[in-house]
Design goal:
The protein is mainly alpha-helical. The chain is built from five helices and no strands. It is elongated and about 55 Å long. The protein starts with a helix and ends with a helix.
Amino acid sequence: MRTLVQLFLFCGLFTGLVRYAVRGGAIDGLYFYPKPVQERAIEIGLSTREEMVQKRKRFMAPFFLIMLAALLFIIDVWNKVNTFGTAYLQALLFLEVMNWFDGIFIDRVWVGNDSFWVLPGTEDIPFVQTWSQVFKKRMFLTGIWIIGAAIVAGIVVLLF
């Protein structure tokens, strides 16, 4: 039960950070969109390439650090894990749940069903991933997180 609560809080933090990224409107998260949408938004003057890159940099670095800190807190402080194997399995669970949560609930459910994400002037360009695209991307990221979990576990064991 504790793990389910932790997963819920972890995914809630993820969602909250994404919502924070677009606090001024969906255009603030232009870097989340596919290239054709980005190009059209820039072409019609909704943003500039420089502004999009700056917003991405300002969001992504703190986002990764906050999510890493939350994961380290859960594994080390809350769960008091001190072995690599256990830390690895917990990190892998959290990273994979986050990965699939992002693809299914953020990309498909939230973005796919909320008009908030439709940028004026880009309505004719698909911006929600198909289920096939979600599956391919999430399978690729599953492999990445297998390695990422080892890095997190190493941090837990070496630093804490």
